[in-house]
Amino acid sequence: SDARDRMRPTRDFIAHHTLLHTLRDRRCTGMIRIAPTTEGWVLEGDGDRSDALLVHRRDDTPDTNSLSVGDDAYRVDLNGNAWQLDTRDGSRGWTSTTTPFIIEAASAPLLHLQKELQLQPAMLPARPRRHAHRIQMANPTSTPIRGTLRFADDERITIDPPLLQIDLGPDERRLLEVDLLVTGPLPLGPHAIDAMLDLQHPTLHRIPVRCWADVGLPDLEIDVTSTPTPAGPLEVTITIHNHGDTARLLETRLAGTDIGTLPDQRIAVGPGETSGHRFLLHIDPAMETDHTLHAQIAEVQSSGRVQVAITLPETTTLATVDPLAP
């Protein structure tokens, strides 16, 4: 309340009121991954209320996302303001930030159809070879569905076969055999595999969909961080934990424009152990750079290789990189 004892709702009160209104007479029936750090919680209405999706982003960087949510869907922020969604290749798009928001008038069956589209196993080894996987498809409705699922071309991952026939009875779930052919080094972490679902029954409907692969090296947990130092240079730390039962040997390096050539730094990690290496990037304000470099981690005794992109501040340029002791 104010000095005259009049009620003045705070910003937090408005946000809580909007969330309570969103959750009322709805039940959460699952989570769908929208982007590597963005997820949505499917909220099914009780009949009088429409379905909705509560969208949340887990990091600080705004990102453009899209998802098939239904033709009537619209966005509502935590202040209760409604916004139209962009149309992007048959999906609805938006820019997400750390503040959650709601997509109202969504279609829960459509969302569950996408949520159930999964790669099994989800972990994709970043080794250039053919990997056997299965695609999970599920029909969340009480009506049979028939159609095709065609995977989009990917620069370094090829799905074989690229076209799958879909024929699912009511509430049926099925696993379809596929091979994933890796043809080069891959970015570490979640990787979207885009596809187009063309339904011929019960109605003609084209739905852009995606499933996710978790790219990595078997039994290894890899973390790459970058931190400015008090003196000005940037410190890049590569940390590796070995969850397996055999020792591993890896080569690490930093690659990018205007970085001097350095020998690879080897990291030995025993079973159940953690090891790593630190690099120090010196700043030269007179040089031009694209402000992006890559930390590359490669298996010495196998063919796996992953990389992590590091985006530098616009005011940062690089001259040399010095390896530091762990």
What does this structure look like?
The protein is mainly beta. The chain is 6% helix and 56% strand. It is built from 2 helices and 27 strands. The chain has helices at residues 11-23, 108-115, and strands spanning 26-35, 38-45, 51-57, 63-67, 74-76, 82-83, 86-88, 91-96, 101-106, 118-120, 123-125, 130-138, 145-151, 157-160, 163-168, 173-182, 186-187, 189-201, 205-216, 220-228, 234-242, 248-256, 265-269, 274-283, 292-299, 305-311, 318-324. The strands form 6 sheets. The protein has a 6-stranded antiparallel beta sheet, covered by helices on one side. Strands 11-19-18-13-15 form a 5-stranded mixed beta sheet, with no helix packed on it. Strands 17-26-25-22-23 form a 5-stranded mixed beta sheet, with no helix packed on it. A hairpin with a 3-residue loop joins strand 18 (189-201) and strand 19. The N and C termini lie far apart (55 Å).
Give the gist of this structure.
This protein has 2 helices and 27 strands. The chain has a 6-stranded antiparallel sheet with strand order 1-2-3-9-5-6, covered by helices on one side. Strands 11-19-18-13-15 form a 5-stranded mixed sheet, with no helix packed on it.
